[in-house]
């Protein structure tokens, strides 16, 4: 199934061609995204030296980033509670960060 | 000697032979067989097939089925075999067609219940396929990172415009990055983009490669990297990043782009990677 991450708007298939699961993780913020957040001109060539320094030193962590990779500590917690896992298991119980969720395409 | 007496004699002899065997494994009433699996492929069933010499001296064919998870997390199951000697045991994928590198199992002897299991012995460990002929006692245990892994062609996430690429090695996987290829389409905004390739451990950069040449506006350029590739300038709109030889990455490591002066309208396509993968718990 193709999905769109609602945190970073990236699009992906949840399975690869060989049938394995694909685990999406949002990327760090780009220069363009930080520039937009700082309300800098869209044309990066018009940034001042101070603005460029601000970009370079900016915190690149994405708010509400999604990371579908399995959190083994959460999986262990399910096992301790004898909660069986199946295809209906809420992903929030086992993935590292649900972010803003996904939308099926 | 009638047939019944003969059969009973054979059973007694078989039981005595098993007691002195160096390969048969004795199970008393408290011992249980445990399988722990780590699978990266869905719709797989692992069948444990073997022979068990019961306390009555009769050899029984045994078969137990187990379903691994598909996200490389551990799936565990216990089986009671009763009292007797395990003569041989072979795991085989009876459902699905996993390759070496996709479903790894431990076969163990344990005591206790689900909550308080005490492992006592490892019968065998290794990868399972639908044609596997390996198992206890004919084959030695194999570590999950030994030998060749499974080759996978992975299509990553297609990021939104103005967003970088990040691909993460999945939980409980080890990757050897063999090839990486991605296309960048730049917008009409005038700027000299400098797209770099970064490999980090999830937080700290371990390797970085600048491009061979900057990318101006309104261009479509292909960026590639391979085992021990060098940074090369543009040739026919294709340029190469450097990549270490034997680029082996642990779970959580990231392969990502970092583009100086990336513009809001620039668009990275979904990356394509060739990786060799092992299960690594």
Number of H/I helices of chain B: 1
Provide a count of the helices of chain A: 3
Unreliable stretches covering 5 or more consecutive residues of chain B: none
List SSEs of chain B in N-to-C order.
HEEEEEEEEEEEEEEEEEEEE
State the main characteristics:
heterodimer, A: 105 residues, alpha+beta, 3-stranded antiparallel β-sheet, two-stranded antiparallel ribbon, 16% strand, elongated, B: 281 residues, mainly beta, 8-stranded mixed β-sheet, 4-stranded antiparallel β-sheet, rod-shaped
Overall description:
The complex is a heterodimer of chains A (105) and B (281). The N and C termini of chain A lie close together (8 Å). Chain A has 3 helices and 5 strands; from the N terminus they run ββααβαββ. In chain A, the strands form 2 sheets. Chain A has a 3-stranded antiparallel sheet with strand order 2-1-5, with no helix packed on it. A two-stranded antiparallel ribbon of chain A has the order 3-4. Chain B has 281 residues and is mostly beta strands. Chain B contains 1 helix and 20 strands. In chain B, strands 9, 11, 14, 15, 16, 17, 19 and 20 form an 8-stranded mixed sheet that branches. Chain B has a 4-stranded antiparallel sheet with strand order 1-6-3-4. In chain B, strands 5-2-7-8 form a 4-stranded antiparallel sheet, with no helix packed on it. At the A-B interface, β2, α1 and β3 of A face β9, β10 and β18 of B.
